[in-house]
Amino acid sequence: MILCADIGGSFIDFAVVHPDGRTEHRRSVPTPLDNAPAFIGALVALCAPWPDMPLHIAIAGVECPDTGIIRAANIPCLQALPLSAHLRRETGRIVRIANDADCFALAEAHFGVAKGHRNVFGVILGTGIGGGFILDGRIVPGLGGVTGEWGHAPLVIPPPASHDQESAQALVPLFRCGCGISGCLDTIAGARALERLHLWAGGTPQTSRTILEAWQTGDRQAGRTLDIWLSYMGAGLAHVINVTGSTIVPVAGGLSNAHALVDALDEAVRARILTTTSGPLLRRAALGADAGLLGAACLGLDIRAQN
Hints:
It comes from Gluconacetobacter aggeris. It catalyses: N-acetyl-D-glucosamine + ATP = N-acetyl-D-glucosamine 6-phosphate + ADP + H(+). It holds the Pfam family ROK. Its EC number is 2.7.1.59. This protein is α/β, with parallel strands linked by helices. It folds into 2 domains: 2-100 and 289-306, 2-Layer Sandwich (Nucleotidyltransferase, domain 5); 116-285, ATPase, nucleotide binding domain (Nucleotidyltransferase, domain 5, 2-Layer Sandwich), CATH 3.30.420. It is 37% helix and 19% strand. The chain is built from 10 helices and 12 strands. It has helices spanning 36-47, 83-91, 100-110, 165-171, 186-189, 191-200, 208-216, 220-244, 259-270, 291-306; strands at 2-7, 11-17, 23-30, 55-59, 62-63, 70-71, 95-99, 119-125, 129-135, 138-139, 249-252, 282-284. Strands 3-2-1-4-7 form a 5-stranded mixed sheet, with helices on both faces. A 5-stranded mixed sheet has the order 10-9-8-11-12, with helices on both faces. Strand 2 (11-17) and strand 3 form a beta hairpin. The protein is globular, with a radius of gyration of 20 Å.
C-alpha cells in the first residue's frame, strides 16, 4: 500500500492506496495556505499512523528536479520551499512529489481511459488549462520540472504588420497571461478566459456555462465565440499531438463536462494533425476526483518497478 496526498489550493486529500487503485482511510483537511509549519504539520499528522511507508504527493505546482524547490502560485507558503526535504526530515520517510496535471495523466494511463496506451497526453480544461505527458507508463520529466504546459507560449499572435498592443487587440484576442507573456492559449481557453473571449467577440457578460448552453442551442454570438475558441485550441492541441505522437488524450476539468465541447475540440484537432484517425483522440477522463491520488500512487508503483 502507498500513502498518497493530492494537494490543491483548498484541500489536502489523503488516502492509503492499494496497487490496484482501491483507496482506504481517505481524509480531507483544509490546505494551510500562508503557514509553512502548519502545512508540513498537517501532512505529518496525516501520515503518522503509518510510520514506515513512503509518501507520494500530487501538488498544484512544480518541484524543480535539481533543487527540490516548489513553485505553487495558489499555495503561497510553499513558494521557494524545498518541501520534500522538510518532509523527509520531519518524518524520516521517502517522499516523492509531482505536478497534479502530470499525476492526472499518469492515473488515466494506469487505471483510466488511457490504460493500454504507450503514449498519452492528458489535458485539463478548467479555470485554466494544463496537461501531462506520459510515455511507457511514466511521467516525462521536463526542464525545471515543467512538462505538458501547452497553455503557455504565444500562440494567439497578430500578423507581423501589427506592432502595437491596441491594434493587435482589434485583430486577435491578444491578452496578457499571468505567466508574463501575451497571447498564451491559457488567456482564452479556460472557463474565465472563455467568458473574456465572449466579450471580446461582441457578446454580453455571461458565465462559461451559459455561453456553452447558448452555443449548443444554435445562438449566433455564442457560435462566433466558440468558432474562435475551437480554431485556436484545435491548432494548439494538434501541434502537441504532432510533436508527441500521443494516441489518446484524456480530458478532465470543469469544461470537459460539456460533452459537445470535447467532441467539437476532438474534431478540430483531428482536422489539423498529420495522421488520419478513424476514431476520436480526445476522450473524457474516467477517474474524476480520484485522479490526483491515484496518480500519486503510480509514483510509488514506479519506484517499486525501478527497484
